[in-house]
C-alpha cells in the first residue's frame, strides 16, 4: 500500500449574515449568555438555513458567527474647534 494523502473536497457555502439592527446593551448581554429574543432569532435563522439546505444539512454542522459592533462618533480635531472656518 502506498501512503498517498487523500484529498478531501469541501464546498464553500455563502455565509448567512443577519442584521439585528440597533440593540439595547441588555439584549446584547443576554445574547452573549445564550438567552433572550436575539438568541431565539439567531436559532430561527439557523433552522431556516437547515431547511433550505435540505438533505445537504444532514451531515453538516452549521455554526453561526455573530458580530456585534457599535458606531463611534468621529473625533473632531482640536484646531477645527478652536479656529473654525469663516465663510
Question: Helix and strand layout, with pairings?
Answer:
Blueprint: H1 25-32, H2 36-53, H3 78-82
Helix pairs in contact: 1-2
Quaternary state of the chains = single chain
Order of helices and strands: HHH
Mean pLDDT: 78
Number of helices: 3
Radius of gyration: 23 Å
SS class: mainly alpha
The portion of residues assigned to helices is 25-40%
Strand content: under 5%
Query: What is the approximate shape?
Result: elongated
Poorly predicted ranges: none
For the termini, the CA-CA separation is 84 Å
SS elements, strand count = 0
For the largest beta-sheet, the strand count, sense and barrel status come to: none
Describe this structure in words.
- The chain has 87 residues and is an all-alpha fold.
- The chain has a domain at 17-69.
- 36% of the residues lie in helices and 0% in strands.
- Helix 1 (25-32) packs across helix 2 (36-53).
- The chain is elongated.
- The termini are far apart.
